């Protein structure tokens, strides 16, 4: 799935490990000359939930969601954008995912569209 410039979207990410409830999560986006960090802080645009096994008994991974605004998606140029997840739990243990690539697709007319 590509993210189109100038759109709003909710990007779902699958993290193959368990993020403890209450952890502070950051998701970083990187392209040469541009970086964006979203977080679970109030109005930070990130939240997460467990992914359970088929029997719904055991957590096997974590789904992390990142809300992106029109302005944020416009900031990146078409092509690959690096994405990495980090978190810290209430014990001070910090973890990071590997770096994944998300594809950004171009839009023909740049700028924010408004509903009036």
Rg for CA atoms: 15 Å
| Helix-strand sequence | EEEEEEHEEE
Number of helices: 1
Structural class: mainly beta
Sheet-strand content, in percent, reads over 45%
| Mean pLDDT across all amino acids | 96
- Low-confidence stretches are none
Query: Count the strands?
Result: 9
Question: What does the main sheet amount to?
Answer: 6 strands, mixed
The CATH architecture would be Sandwich
Q: Termini distance? A: 30 Å
Class in CATH?
Answer: Mainly Beta
At CATH level 3, the topology is Immunoglobulin-like
User: How many discrete domains?
Assistant: 1
Q: Please give the share of residues in helix.
A: under 10%
**Principal-axis shape:** elongated
Describe the 3D structure:
- With 116 residues, the protein is mainly β.
- The protein has one domain: Immunoglobulin-like (Sandwich), CATH 2.60.40.
- The strands form two sheets. Strands 1, 3, 4, 7, 8 and 9 form a six-stranded mixed beta sheet that branches. A three-stranded antiparallel beta sheet has the order 2-6-5.
Overview features:
116 residues, mainly beta, Immunoglobulin-like, six-stranded mixed sheet, 1 helix
Concise summary:
Helix content is 4%, strand content 52%.
SSE inventory with pairings:
Elements: E1 2-4, E2 9-15, E3 24-31, E4 34-39, E5 46-52, E6 59-68, H1 70-74, E7 79-88, E8 94-96, E9 100-105
Parallel strand pairs: 1-9
Antiparallel strand pairs: 2-6, 3-4, 3-7, 5-6, 7-8, 7-9
